[in-house]
Design goal:
mainly beta
Length: about 80
C-alpha cells in the first residue's frame, strides 16, 4: 500500500488515503490471470492501532477489476493484499 495523501480534520484527527501499490493485486484470485481493465473503485476502512494523541482513520481506495479469463467463474474482483485482513 502507498499513502496518497493525509488530511487533518477540524477535530485534529487525521485521515490517511491509501492506494494499492502492489501490481500482484491485479491478479484474479480465482484463476491468477492479471487484469488490465478497471470496472470501478471502492473505498474500505481498514482498522489499525491508535497512532499518537489524535485519531487516525485509514481509507483504502481499491480498484475493482474485470477478470478477462473466459473460463474463470469470477466476473470481477477487488484488489486485496494478504497482509491486510
Amino acid at each position: 500500500m502507498a499513502v496518497e495523501r493525509v488530511e487533518r480534520l477540524a477535530d485534529g484527527s487525521r485521515v490517511a488515503w491509501l492506494v494499492t501499490a502492489d501490481e500482484a493485486a491485479r491478479a484474479c484470485p480465482g484463476c491468477g490471470v492479471f487484469s488490465g481493465r478497471v470496472k470501478g473503485v471502492v473505498r474500505t476502512r481498514p482498522r489499525d492501532l491508535p497512532c499518537g494523541s489524535g485519531g487516525l482513520q485509514l481509507v483504502w481506495v481499491k480498484r475493482r477489476w474485470y477478470c478477462r479469463e473466459p473460463l474463470c467463474g469470477r466476473g470481477s474482483f477487488t484488489e486485496s493484499l494478504p497482509v491486510v485482513a
